[in-house]
Specification:
alpha/beta, 4-stranded antiparallel beta sheet, 24 helices, 12 strands
Length: about 625
């Protein structure tokens, strides 16, 4: 089994590493291409001769004296390529900076300020999007005298016509962010608008801005090349587009002078490729959550399938547990670690057995690893989370034992919802607001039961709603037309739609009043009896688990500290932590339990944790 303490002894990386991107092959190749071409554009003109020098050796092939040959009038192609690369890169960067600033002004500032400012900015953006971009650029360039069409003029024209699309994307994202809680908190704290935009909003929009800058640079170089090829480019500047224009006018293609038109085209293609590769890595460079993922853990490594041991009645596990009924799900020595700078061992050596038709309650305080365990069982973790040891085995109805950790993508797709389903925490908001209930239930059947006809799918959806006590006429409703309790029932109906063998319930009654909560739990118990599925019920509410569960597992700091029947947990809890969890809930007589945090009591005096609980348990300070 993997030693989870090995990571704790590993040396901590230097703090300076946090701000640096994690190199990947595509990022390294992209940066390498950009650096080489950029250095050629900066230093190349210093190393080559005069690009305008005319010689009497027209259209000569590459040779020792002219590495890329000469043009029709004897000008050195290598010298022209150096100056043209500098000109095109200058225009691309200028356009990228100006267009990004304009899109940020109209997209971010306008949408955050709102009101008439946002309406005016949005109207202008829409007008710019309606007008075709390339014809507008051609018209504007054609009206500028040839003598005045320099690099700056072309850059301004391209920036004016290229910012609107990015502004619309930034506006939509800003409208989504401006109502987030941390933005509202900044407003309540009295922060000025410019600071909210610069400190709270802008860091979240950096990936979009960086991506738009990269694509604007690529688009500007290509647009300038097209204009120059048509004779509408920078007349008094050397660019890759003007090189292609001169090559076309000199009939380079017809004369087979490939050295005249291939190099500038290759520079454009390679530079665009390099920027695209960097753009693919922008999220990894800017997003700290992605940057902290170790490269070796980022791959989706396939675990080799292994035969799983069948657990029948009376089987004894290596931890001493004895099965008195057929097991449907077995978790053995499972450990899950979040591979961050300081590794977090969220689940530590957990072993559980879920029997057919039973409800196993998993309780514990927030952050103890309950949801992490459920996600591991359902194979929903993404890096930096990693299952470092253990096994998860589903004992299928047909007699097969399935190693869940060995499933590939297609096997996982068939496994989820069909054999094992999950109702997520906060499931009331998990429904798509723009699709009807029928469409969302029907999508599950279309994916997993493709042979079913449309009428059969409709009848199955209606039947699923009846099971959870919802009128089938609600199939035509949208989620916003349902109450919180009804939306929760719909999510449970979706989880039971394919009659899975195991259902994971992660706080399924969160934010519901006690009456609705009671009704949903009553339906779950009835459906469990009718359909025979097993339930892993995750909650903080230990008294609730005592009422509805067959067995209860108490979790603390990623470990199962106690597992017993509900009656045993209520009557004789063995572990001190379990006793303090029970004491933390006040009784109907108003008595306070021993699970008290240090602080002020009712008399305003400092509350001191007792040295030992009256029942022989541990002190409250030890529980913390």
């Amino acid at each position: 089994m993997t030693n989870l303490n090995a990571d704790l002894a590993a040396p901590r990386p230097r703090s300076g590493r946090r701000v640096l991107p994690r190199w990947s092959p595509k990022l390294a190749i992209g940066v390498g291409i950009i650096v080489v071409i950029g250095l050629w554009g900066l230093a190349g003109p210093v190393l080559v001769g005069d690009p305008d020098a005319i010689r009497d050796i027209g259209l000569t092939a590459p040779s020792g004296s002219h590495l890329l040959g000469t043009t029709q009038t004897g000008q050195d192609v290598l010298a022209q390529l150096a100056y043209a690369t500098r000109g095109s890169l200058s225009i691309g960067v200028l356009v990228g900076i100006m267009a990004t600033l304009l899109s940020a002004l109209f997209g971010i500032v306008g949408s955050y300020v709102g009101g008439l400012v946002d309406e005016a900015f949005s109207l202008l953006s829409n007008l710019m999007l309606v007008i075709p971009g390339l014809p507008l650029v051609i018209v504007i360039s054609a009206f500028v005298p040839a003598s005045a069409r320099g690099s700056w003029t072309i850059a301004v024209v391209l920036a004016i016509t290229g910012w609107a699309g990015s502004a619309r994307v930034l506006r939509a994202q800003t409208l989504s962010l401006r109502n987030r809680d941390y933005i509202q908190a900044a407003r309540v704290a009295g922060e000025k608008r410019w600071r909210v935009i610069g400190v709270e909003l802008l860091p979240n929009l950096l990936p979009l801005l960086a991506s738009q800058f990269v694509f604007t640079v690529i688009g500007a170089i290509l647009s300038e090349t097209g204009l120059s090829f048509l004779g509408l480019g920078a007349a008094n500047s050397a660019t890759l587009g003007t090189m292609l224009n001169y090559a076309q006018n000199g009939f380079a293609l017809q004369r087979g002078a490939w050295w005249w038109f291939v190099p500038p085209g290759l520079i454009i293609a390679l530079f665009g490729c390099g920027l695209a590769l960097v753009n693919f890595s922008i999220d990894e460079i800017i997003n700290p959550r992605l940057r902290d993922i170790p490269r070796r853990e980022r791959g989706n490594r396939r675990r080799e399938p292994r035969p799983a041991e069948r657990l029948d009645d009376g089987a004894v596990l290596d931890d001493g547990a004895v099965l008195d009924n057929g097991a449907v799900l077995t978790v053995r020595h499972l450990s899950v670690t979040y591979r961050t700078e300081n590794p977090v061992h969220a689940v530590r050596d957990v072993s559980l057995v879920l029997r057919r038709g039973e409800i196993l309650g998993l309780v514990g305080e927030s952050g103890c690893g309950k949801t992490t365990l459920a996600y591991a069982i359902n194979r929903l973790h993404r890096p930096p989370a990693e299952v470092t040891s253990g096994s998860i085995t589903l004992h299928d109805r047909d007699g097969d034992d399935l190693d869940v950790l060995a499933f590939d993508r297609d096997e996982l797709r068939a496994f989820r919802w069909d054999r094992l389903s999950m109702v997520f925490q906060g499931a009331m908001n998990a429904l798509n607001p723009v699709l009807t209930i029928r469409a969302q239930l029907d999508d599950v059947l279309t994916t997993h039961r493709p042979a079913m006809s449309r009428g059969e799918r409709h009848e199955r959806c209606a039947e699923a709603l009846r099971l959870v006590g919802v009128d089938p006429r609600r199939l035509k409703a949208y989620p916003h037309e349902l109450s919180g309790g009804m939306r929760q029932r719909v999510m449970i109906a979706m989880a039971l739609l394919l009659e899975p063998q195991v259902v994971l319930l992660d706080e399924p009654t969160t934010a519901l009043d006690v009456v609705v909560q009671r009704g949903i739990l009553r339906e779950l118990l009835r459906l469990r009896t009718a359909l025979g599925f097993a339930v892993l019920f995750i909650t903080h509410d230990l008294p609730l688990m005592l009422e509805v569960s067959d067995r209860i597992a108490v979790m603390r700091d990623g470990r199962i500290v106690e597992e017993a029947t509900a009656e045993q947990i209520a009557a004789e809890p063995r572990h001190p932590y379990t006793r303090h969890l029970l004491d933390s809930f006040p009784s109907l007589l108003g008595e306070r339990g021993a699970f008290i945090r240090a602080g002020e009591d009712e008399r305003g005096e400092a509350a001191r944790p007792p040295a030992a609980a009256p029942d022989g348990g541990i002190a409250a300070e030890e529980v913390r």
